[in-house]
Design brief:
The chain is 38% helix and 21% strand. It has 6 helices and 8 strands. An 8-stranded mixed sheet has the order 3-2-1-4-5-6-7-8. It is globular, with a radius of gyration of 16 Å.
C-alpha cells in the first residue's frame, strides 16, 4: 500500500504541526477538530506560520499556496473514510484516545494504518480499542513539528513488520530522522 492521503485528528499545537508537515511533503491532508472555532484557530496558525516563512524569503508564495491547497479541515471524523493513515494528536488521556481509535477503526479503510502521537501512554491499550492492532503504532513527533527533525516510531507487540516498514517510509518522506522503539513507558526521549 502506498500512503497518499493522511488524516490528523486534532488541530492544536501538535496536530496542526503534523498536518502542516504532511501537506508540505506532498500528501493530501485532512485535519479534524471538535468544533469550527478550534479548527479555524489551528488552520490559521498553519497559514500564519507559512506566511512568515514566505516573508523571510525561505519559500515562494506559490509553494505556500500549493501546501494550503493540499490541506483541508473538518469537524467530522467520518471525513477520514479515504485516509491511508490516521494520526491521532488529541489530549494525553487514554480513554479519549481509545474513543478516537474505536471511531477511526470503523471509518478508515481496512488497509489504513492508525497511529498515536502520544509521548508516553501505552499504545497497546489504544490498539486494543481497534480491530486492527497489527496496523497500529506510535508516531511521536516533537514540537515544533515543522522544525524538529526527530520522530520516535513505536511498535507494540502486535504491530506487523509491514506496518512498521510503511510507517518508516512515510516518516522518512516527511523529512524526519527516525528512531524505532518498543511500547515502553516514556519510549526513548521521555524516558531519558
Amino acid at each position: 500500500m502506498k500512503i497518499e492521503r493522511v488524516g490528523v485528528v486534532g488541530c492544536g499545537l501538535m496536530g496542526s504541526g503534523i498536518a502542516q508537515v504532511c501537506a508540505q511533503s506532498g500528501y493530501i491532508t485532512r485535519v479534524s477538530e471538535v468544533n469550527e472555532a478550534l479548527l479555524n484557530r489551528g488552520l490559521g496558525a498553519i497559514r500564519s506560520g507559512l506566511e512568515k516563512v514566505v516573508e523571510k524569503g525561505k519559500m515562494p508564495a506559490s509553494e505556500k499556496d500549493a501546501i494550503l491547497s493540499r490541506l483541508n479541515g473538518t469537524t467530522r471524523l467520518e471525513d477520514f473514510s479515504d485516509c491511508d493513515i490516521a494520526i491521532e494528536a488529541v489530549i494525553e488521556n487514554t480513554a479519549e484516545k481509545r474513543k478516537v481509535f474505536s471511531t477511526l477503526d470503523k471509518i478508515c479503510p481496512r488497509h489504513a494504518i492508525l497511529a498515536s502521537n502520544t509521548s508516553c501512554l501505552s499504545l497497546i491499550d489504544m490498539a486494543m480499542a481497534t480491530s486492527r492492532p497489527a496496523q497500529f503504532m506510535g508516531m511521536h513527533f516533537f514540537n515544533p513539528v515543522p522544525v524538529m527533525k526527530l520522530l520516535e516510531i513505536i511498535t507494540t507487540i502486535t504491530t506487523s513488520a509491514e506496518t512498521l516498514e510503511q510507517c518508516k517510509a512515510f516518516s522518512t518522506s516527511l523529512g524526519k530522522e527516525i528512531v524505532i522503539t518498543r511500547d515502553n513507558p516514556g519510549f526513548i526521549v521521555n524516558r531519558l
